[in-house]
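Reading a protein record of the kind used here takes only a little practice. The integers have meaning only within a learned vocabulary of local backbone shapes. With that in mind, consider the following protein and its fold in token form:
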Amino acid sequence: QVQLVESGGGSVQAGGSLRLSCAASGYIFSTGCVAWFRQPPGKAREGVAVIGSSGRPSYADSVKGRFTISKDNAKNTFYLQMNSLKPDDTAMYFCAADPPKLGAVCDAAYLTPNFDYWGQGTQVTVSS
């Protein structure tokens, strides 16, 4: 049984930083795609960042240059470092994982909310 558990959310002022972590069990994410999504209040879930076995990350335009996705295969954990946070970044953040799928490329086009496995979410609130 796959479980993803996020941690690291909280409240910060604009310009601040947070690092989210997602610990995986029952899933070998050295292969496949892992990603972060977010869902602002009253809005749809949107992809933020994704990374695959190549280690090459892709990002939504809204977070490029500010957010960094990374993973530690030995710890079965992946991360989202968020810098220069803005009030518009306020949302519930979710980690997600997909096993390897034929023809799949872990790039920005893959950032749709159709991943197989999801964490429970962690709240990030950025005040102005």
The chain has no helices and eleven strands. The chain has a mean pLDDT of 94. The longest strand covers residues 18-25.
